[in-house]
Amino acid sequence: MQWDTLANDDSIKKTVDALAQNGIDAIIVKDKESAKKKVLELLPKDAEVMTMTSVTLDETGITEAVNNSEKYNSVKNKLMKLDRTKDGAEMQKLGAAPEWTIGSVHAVTEDGKVVVVSNSGSQLPAYAYASTHVIWVVGTQKIVKNLDDAQKRIHDYILPLETKRARIAYGLPDTWDSNVSKILIIAKEVAPKRLTIVFVKEKLGF
């Protein structure tokens, strides 16, 4: 199975329609520049925004655009000024419930389910409930048939790439491996307009 192949238009439409039935909004854009423009349009001026660690956000320039702008109240910038040893509890609270959260996901099924995996779980509280607004930027190569394929995509394709990324990013030894420690599956959202996926017809992230 080629887990990095962009979904065709029929698959995208099927997924978007299913997401709508499950209370999740979806927008389709053509490329990463359009994705960046759309996300910045969605963010109100002076909004409290957390950019989760994401290859997709980095590739689109969204991470830099949010955290280097005076238009937004960057939670990531606040976290960078704190000390994990002394301020650990405060850092957890800040990261768990920002007003706006931007990130990505690891798979979206054609029947409208969103799958996110994590080693630490740090991004999951905001995604599941605590953020008032969540925007996910998702390359359409992440659309899969069902939850079984989502699991295969995660374990067979994403996990080795994430291990390699983390080793380089955090200076970890070659013996270190990432884990699928925690899995969030959002099958339905009950809060109107809380979750938005920006689908990009371009391969982004893993």
Outline the structure in words.
This protein has helices spanning 9-21, 32-42, 55-60, 62-67, 75-80, 84-96, 124-130, 147-170, and strands at residues 25-29, 48-51, 73-74, 100-103, 107-109, 114-118, 133-139, 143-144, 182-186, 195-200. The protein is globular and about 50 Å long. The chain has eight helices and ten strands. A hairpin with a 4-residue loop joins strand 5 and strand 6. It has a six-stranded parallel β-sheet with strand order 1-10-7-4-2-3. It is of the alpha/beta class and 206 residues long. The mean pLDDT is 96. 42% of the residues lie in helices and 21% in strands. The longest helix is centred in the C-terminal third of the chain and has 24 residues, at 147-170.
